[in-house]
Amino acid sequence: MLVMVCDRRIRVCGSCNAPARTPTVRSTVPLRKWLTSDVVISLRPLIAADASTLASWAVDPVFCAHAGWRLRESPVDALEWWQNAIVHADPKLVRLLALSDSDPVGYVDLHGDEGGRRELGYLVGPSARWGQGLGTAVARCALEFGFTELGLESIWAEAIEANTASVRVLRRLSMQPAGVGNRAEFLGARSRYLMFELSRHDWFERQTESAR
């Protein structure tokens, strides 16, 4: 098993609204949430048994409203969809489950077919886990995986402008503004997508600076 360890301390706050072909990865990020205890995040590829956990988030109305998921009456209603998504994964998508200790807390996506460039996606679920700094930690792990394991040259992401929590996370990751995308709605409000990007070079420079 390949092990990646980030020993950087990160000061964060706020909430998060985000089959790999590489070796199984455990990426641990000591996360300081203000002056409280550390949170350790690990990433691994999805397995069939994860479908029930992911399906359970589909009955959380707050989570679904923010994530753009269809709200279900029962987890069973979403179970088949997730089973199919895991077994018949999109070949352009690397999706990794995020865990805090051994508990699933979200997942990250690195999607695309442009070779050295992919889109970052992430989420934390269910909504009861928001406000603990997990969004930043999970997304930071995804960047590390993309640059060090996939060898990407650039990672981009977009967030709806009205979703201020997600925009804050991308800015906290030092991703740079890269334009404006399509119009969108968020919780009934008209908005638009803001695009961000981070190069491999800039990411490594920031790791060097934070290690000094």
Describe the structure.
The chain is of the alpha+beta class. The chain has a domain at 2-46 and 89-151. The chain has 6 helices and 11 strands. The chain has helices spanning 51-56, 61-67, 76-87, 134-148, 164-172, 200-211, and strands at residues 2-5, 25-28, 31-32, 38-39, 41-45, 93-100, 103-111, 117-124, 154-160, 176-186, 189-199. Strands 5-6-7-8-9-11-10 form a 7-stranded mixed beta sheet. The protein has a two-stranded parallel sheet with strand order 1-2. A two-stranded antiparallel sheet has the order 3-4. Strand 8, helix 4 and strand 9 (154-160) form a beta-alpha-beta unit. The radius of gyration is 16 Å and the shape is globular. The chain starts with a strand and ends with a helix.
How are the SSEs ordered, and which strands pair?
Layout: E1 2-5, E2 25-28, E3 31-32, E4 38-39, E5 41-45, H1 51-56, H2 61-67, H3 76-87, E6 93-100, E7 103-111, E8 117-124, H4 134-148, E9 154-160, H5 164-172, E10 176-186, E11 189-199, H6 200-211
Parallel strand pairs: 1-2, 8-9
Antiparallel strand pairs: 3-4, 5-6, 6-7, 7-8, 9-11, 10-11
Defining key terms:
212 residues, seven-stranded mixed beta sheet, 33% strand, globular, disordered N terminus
Question: In sequence order, what are the helices and strands, one letter per element?
Answer: EEEEEHHHEEEHEHEEH
Structural class: alpha+beta
Q: What oligomeric state best describes the polypeptide chains here?
A: single chain
Radius of gyration over C-alpha positions, nearest whole angstrom: 16 Å
Count of helical segments?
6
Largest sheet: 7 strands, mixed
Strand content: 25-35%
How many angstroms separate the termini?
29 Å
| C-alpha geometry | globular
Q: What is the count of β-strands?
A: 11
Poorly predicted ranges (pLDDT <50, ≥5 residues)? 1-37
